């Protein structure tokens, strides 16, 4: 039973939008690509773990805080007598261990992921104590990518390698027990501690004028598109997308990057690069947003905001 679903991190979405519209510094581009790879690994983990988690309560992508220290749990599985804490890595290629130090095949030292696993388990235990929750914790470092290999790894380490995944899943199944209402309430209490707005969100500085305008292809992110009747066609990969859906997607990107900017027909027309007429833009806005104000002060706001307020 999934108590907290995994969703695309806002930081990843923002970086993805920016990467398609502005040339990022190399350091920022590497950071963004690592975000993408990390999320791909988490999705692969979810797909693998689902058949083994039928009698478990699953909490994904938790950002928690205890004693003024913030920490992240990639995935957590709760049963009657145990809490499984998973740190997921999507490393690819050959690595090796020398003492407690981790190296790539090119002899570049990397952070020891086991240190992060141990730290997170310690902080998680502290948080559970604060919440009055008593349960046994088992923590594992999961390498999900089949192209990963670690040399010189002692068998005693709490590591699950790609070739061991299915056997490990069966082991989890054997340890799992049917959950009851009390366990569900405990899982929901833990989920309620999740911090919605991540303080880790880190974006490179950018300005509106520096960003590429236009409706970008949903598939290849190219701005080399043209309008045919009610379809936006990509010249690079030939993808065809309904123009209204493409405009809505572009509005979403605009709102993500500039949450304080007013949504107007002129603003969205410019943001979309003028590929469609203002009449079409206005039609989409009127259908999906609420118009407030008059004349020059007119702007569109989300209908959801009206309901929430």
Question: Can you give a write-up of this model?
Answer:
This protein is α/β, with parallel strands linked by helices and about 300 residues long. It folds into two domains: about 1-195, no CATH class; about 210-300, no CATH class. Helices cover about 35% and strands about 25% of the residues. It has nine helices and 15 strands. The protein has helices spanning about 10-20, 25-50, 115-130, 165-175, 180-190, 245-255, 265-270, 280-290, 305-309; strands spanning about 1-5, 55-65, 70-80, 80-90, 95-100, 100-105, 110, 135-145, 150, 160, 225-230, 230-235, 240, 290, 300. The strands form four sheets. The protein has a six-stranded mixed beta sheet. A four-stranded mixed beta sheet has the order 7-6-5-9, with no helix packed on it. It has a three-stranded antiparallel beta sheet with strand order 11-12-13. A hairpin with a 3-residue loop joins strand 3 and strand 4 (about 80-90). The longest helix is centred in the first third of the chain and has 24 residues, at about 25-50. It is globular and about 65 Å long. The mean pLDDT is about 95.
């Amino acid at each position: 039973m999934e108590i907290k679903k995994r969703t695309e991190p806002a930081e990843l979405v923002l970086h993805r939008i920016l990467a398609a519209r502005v040339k990022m510094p190399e350091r920022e581009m590497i950071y963004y690509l690592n975000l993408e790879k990390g999320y791909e690994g988490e999705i692969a983990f979810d797909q693998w773990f689902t058949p083994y988690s039928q009698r478990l309560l699953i909490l994904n992508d938790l950002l928690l805080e205890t004693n003024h220290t913030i920490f992240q749990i990639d995935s957590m599985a709760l049963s009657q007598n145990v809490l499984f804490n998973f740190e997921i890595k999507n490393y690819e290629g050959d690595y090796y261990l020398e003492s407690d130090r981790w190296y790539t095949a090119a002899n570049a030292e990397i952070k020891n992921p086991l240190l992060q696993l141990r730290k997170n388990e310690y902080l998680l235990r502290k948080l559970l104590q604060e919440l009055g929750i008593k349960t046994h914790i088992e923590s594992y470092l999961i390498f999900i990518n089949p192209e990963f290999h670690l040399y010189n790894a002692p068998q005693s380490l709490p590591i699950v390698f790609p070739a061991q995944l299915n056997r490990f899943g069966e082991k989890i199944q054997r340890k799992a027990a049917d959950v009851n209402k009390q366990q569900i309430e405990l899982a929901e209490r833990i989920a309620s501690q999740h911090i919605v707005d991540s303080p880790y969100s880190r974006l490179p500085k950018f300005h509106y004028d520096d960003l590429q305008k236009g409706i970008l292809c949903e598939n290849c992110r190219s701005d080399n598109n043209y309008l045919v009747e009610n379809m936006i066609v990509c010249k690079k990969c030939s993808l065809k997308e309904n123009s209204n859906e493409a405009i809505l997607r572009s509005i979403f990107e605009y709102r993500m990057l500039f949450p304080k900017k007013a949504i107007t027909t002129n603003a969205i027309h410019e943001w979309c690069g003028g590929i469609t007429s203002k009449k079409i833009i206005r039609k989409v806005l009127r259908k999906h947003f609420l118009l407030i104000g008059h004349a020059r002060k007119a702007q569109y706001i989300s209908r959801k905001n009206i309901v929430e307020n």
